[in-house]
Amino acid sequence: MANNFTENSNLSWQLSAYLQGNWSQQFENLTDTLTQQIIAVNATRLRLPTVNTLLTTLKRAFSLVKEWAGIGVMFSMMLLAIFVCLWCLCRIRKSQKSQAAMLVQAFAAVEAGQSPQAWLSMLTDKYMSVLPLLSE
């Protein structure tokens, strides 16, 4: 069987040239070769696309889309969780800085001979407002 269409075309041209000349064994071989190639091409079966094949292809494509969408949603959820964790850490850090500043003020008040109760009451007020939320 010929490997490509160019070779088949060349064989067809050779056949035309032989038809113009005398009948020979080479011409006989060439017609046999072309006949076998024509039979091979005609015997080739093609699968006709059917509705079932189309539906199967669409199901596979939709399945892939669902998988990638699931991966995208999972990635988005992970990013959201990371963002929430960072936001909570920033709030905790801000609260710690505020509490540290109040303690410094309370110690400064003690060193100055004043009562640190105002600063300490601010700390306890903050903790008391948070404690009911934590106990639920």
Automatic annotation (TrEMBL):
Residue ranges crossing the lipid bilayer per the database entry: 68-89
Keywords, alphabetical: Membrane, Transmembrane, Transmembrane helix, Viral envelope protein, Virion
InterPro entries tied to this protein: Viral_Envelope_Glycoprotein (IPR053368)
Q: What is this protein called?
A: Envelope glycoprotein
